[in-house]
Specification:
Structural class: mainly alpha
Shape: globular
Helix content: 55-70%
Order of helices and strands: HHHHHHHHH
Number of domains: 1
Number of helices: 9
CATH topology: Lysozyme
Largest sheet: none
């Protein structure tokens, strides 16, 4: 009888200990390994992993999301002159999403693509004489410096990400001067001078089309209000 009582006491003590430890064990088990990201965040200090954070960053920079959205169909229109409608749509979407949370607008990324590989119909297979790869023409050393492989520059999404990261680094070197940053994106010397001229001409054409689209939308809204 005494032996049975001792066993029961031991059982209750063990059960009580397990119940006390359950919250601790649950907490430890619920903390699974943190996901490993293949590439660094565009923000060097914060890991931007959600669209909500990106949108907040955009709003903090005072950049209108409506203005960004209005740029997309214009970019798509220009891209469609050089490639298939589906590809034009996808590349225009990349220009929008990959510049969220950065100082750049979709047009900034679009004009670089048009100047870099417009003559190659925005092909992801485009390769320059010096070895620059993809729609946004990243050199292998540039790709690696941002955590990508040269082969990944054949992937439009990865190439767009690397282009934005490269442009961000050039912007820091240029002390925030956007034109100089874009010039440095190309390099230095006479080719860079010619490059920035092409960018300005391309940008002007994009902005003029954007103004026309805004006027059309305004007129349509006015007509709808009258009716």
């Amino acid at each position: 009888m005494i032996k049975k009582t001792a066993i029961k006491k031991t059982y209750y003590l063990l059960a009580g200990a397990i119940l006390l430890l359950l919250p601790v064990l649950f907490s430890a088990c619920s903390k699974g390994p943190q996901p490993v990201t293949c590439h660094a965040s565009l923000d060097e200090n914060l890991h931007e992993t959600s669209l909500e954070k990106e949108i907040r960053n955009v709003m903090e920079k005072g950049i209108s999301l409506d203005e960004r959205r209005r740029q997309v169909p214009v970019i798509e229109h220009f891209f469609a002159r050089l490639t298939t409608p589906e590809r034009a749509r996808n590349l225009a979407a990349l220009c929008y999403f990959k510049t969220l949370g950065t100082p750049f607008s979709p047009i900034d990324l679009a004009e670089i693509a048009l100047v870099e590989t417009g003559g190659h119909r925005l092909s992801s297979r485009a390769t320059s004489e010096k070895g620059a790869i993809g729609v946004w023409q990243l050199m292998p050393t540039q790709a690696r410096s941002h955590g990508y492989t040269p082969r990944e520059m054949r992937n439009d999404e990865k190439c767009a990400e690397a282009a934005v990261r490269t442009l961000l680094s050039k912007l820091a070197t240029a002390d925030g001067n956007m034109d100089r940053a874009k010039k440095l994106y190309c390099g230095v010397g006479s080719k860079a001078e010619a490059y920035i001229v092409k960018l300005r001409i391309t940008r002007q054409a994009l902005l003029e089309e954007l103004d026309r689209s805004k006027t059309t939308v305004a007129l349509n809204e006015k007509e709808s209000a009258i009716q």
